[in-house]
Amino acid sequence: MQLSSTARRLAIGALVVVTAALGLTVLDRPQPAAAHGSLTDPPSRNYGCWDRWGADFQNPNMAQTDPMCAQAWQANPNTMWNWNGLFREGVAGNHQAAIPDGQLCSGGRTNNGFYGSLDTVGPWVAATKPNRFTLTLTDQAQHGADYLLIYITKQGFDPATQPLTWNSLELIQRTARYGPAPQYQAQVDAGTRTGRHVIYTIWQASHLDQSYYLCSDVIFTGQGGSTGSPSPSRSTSASPSRSASVSPSASRSASRSASASPSAPVSNGPGGCTASYTKTSEWGGGFGADVKVTAGSAGISGWTVRMTFANGQTVTSSWNATLTSSGATVTAVNSAYNGRLSAGQSTSFGFNGSWNGTNNPPALTCSAA
After folding, report:
1. pTM for this one?
2. What is 266-368's CATH number?
3. Which CATH number fits the domain 36-220, given the four candidates 3.30.870.10, 3.30.70.100, 2.70.50.50, 3.40.605.10?
4. 142-156 tens-digit pLDDT
């Protein structure tokens, strides 16, 4: 069985913990002291430095080939050994108030500046990505996630020469809730961006009011990626023309429901399409939903889904489709990259909304082009 580089390194870390408990010595390198998590694809700055140099951290070539990691190792090696512990507690969703400009990558110099070297401006090693890609967060402790906030720097901003600020970022996506699992994935669309950028991800863990602040350096090729349908339990990508808005953080005592509320699939006949609705999350005054669109017995070149709500629900943000509202009816039209489906193939779009009273699923119709 072949293992990825990430899996091999995580397995090595687990092996060291076990052998240490048995009083044996296998490796002479420190390991993360606390099991939490971080972005592993594209890698966060601290995870990337550990992944590339953890087994070779005394190599003098690091200064020439990876100078930003070299300065981080020199400033405090524990920044990399503890790549999975970059978090703050008690932020209560007020991320921009808690994290000053220029300190976003260190979580506002959290842990007494433990991660301060990650804010250093310079040419960090960057992962090359198509403009539509899968973001993966590895959660070693399986805390779960109330949400991920995914930002990308605006076109024209140069993270190699400019400090990262809130104004340099655009919110691309606010995901739904994730249950505890080893990994959480989101399908991300960077729009028309090209060249060097920073992806800034906030992981709001579910077990406590614990927020992780993660900088990943990427180079976008300007070309598209996979258009496959994400799992309904995972988030979908943000439409580049509609930035997701952040709803106020619900209090810990607010009711949250992760139970699915599907409506019966509706088709417009053979060769058409069906649509099914799933409520992916719910909190006081807000909710997230996913709609799966499946082609019928023949391929289609586009689709339109109409959702009619009966209890005054409104859509506040969306991704993977263009949504317009007229009274109680919300119309969703495919994006350019997910309209063409082969017979039986599926895609999906998602949205966040507000509700009052009863948050029942809408009536659906699906028509194909």
Report:
1. 0.56
2. 2.60.40.290
3. 2.70.50.50
4. 889 999 999 999 999
